[in-house]
Amino acid sequence: MKLPDLDYCAPASLEEVVALLSANADAKIISGGQSLMPVLAFRLNAPSVLVDLGRLQGLDRIEIGADHVRLGARVRWIDIERHPALRTAQPLLVAMIDHVAHTQVRNRGTVGGSLAHADPASEMPGFARLVDAVIEVFGESGPRELSAEDFFLGPLETVLEPTDVLTGVRLPAWPAGRRWGFQEVARRRGDFAMAGVAVCFDDGTDGAVHDMRAVAIGAGSTPVRLSGVEAFLEGRVLTAELAEAAGATAGQEVSPMVEDAGEADYRRALVMTLTARTLKQAAGLEQE
Ligand SMILES: Cc1cc2nc3c(=O)[nH]c(=O)nc-3n(C[C@H](O)[C@H](O)[C@H](O)COP(=O)(O)OP(=O)(O)OC[C@H]3O[C@@H](n4cnc5c(N)ncnc54)[C@H](O)[C@@H]3O)c2cc1C
Q1: What is the mean pLDDT of residues 239-267?
Q2: Cβ neighbours of residue 15 under 8 Å, at least 6 residues apart?
């Protein structure tokens, strides 16, 4: 279907973007357009104005600092994939983003678009929740910061105001030697995950798991931090048996948002299996 009639603006400053959004209540930001264009084509939304972020300087920057990595909102999946240092600086991020979509979408889709779109099956929101990322926003009262924990409200719903521009995301530096695992199941490679699980933890000198973190995607209305799994494993020496038991715990923490009860059960079972597998992957335990 053809797009609805609309005006197109490509402002050169954040202040102009916010002014346009304030003046046009039904205006929409467009970044990579990979989620928005299908929405417009299906007439699920009919904004009067599209505000393109493409002329804003600096939003496509990747900065690797001593205590954090900052991704500008217009950093694309392909930029993450090809960055020479990110694979070392944020190995789990790169592994998760490797699963996002197909080449055409990866050439345009952006970090900011994915966070703002807030699809619960998306990898970037899941990673942001896992590492407690800080989301940077510019709105009517200037810049402010939001925690990833508070950011996602539901499927395609965030705390962003209609006049807010997401400008970037800060990820805490990845500690040397941190262990991680990520696995997802999609119908075809590059499709949205039916479910996925990411885990990470640090090795203590006692051989036990420390700062245990786990998140599930495609398994709730937002990315789901598996806090029961985290509490269950924190301070324990990870074994294959414990990984399996943690998988069972994960199954109790998710409520897949699908109408078909059978598919919801299937996705819950996926989360259980993937939790056990990613834990074994992270710990270097033999996979069955
Ligand atoms: C075939 C296909 C397969 C896909 N598979 C996956 C997948 O496996 N995993 C995955 O994570 N994603 C997948 N996607 C989605 C893709 O990653 C999108 O690119 C991404 O979710 C949105 O990014 P975008 O830059 O295209 O945003 P856009 O489409 O431009 O915008 C999306 C929404 O966010 C808003 N927005 C965008 N940028 C900002 C900003 N800076 N501030 C405030 N609001 C903003 C827009 O107004 C819009 O509502 C797929 C898409 C397609 C078409």
Answers
A1: 93
A2: none
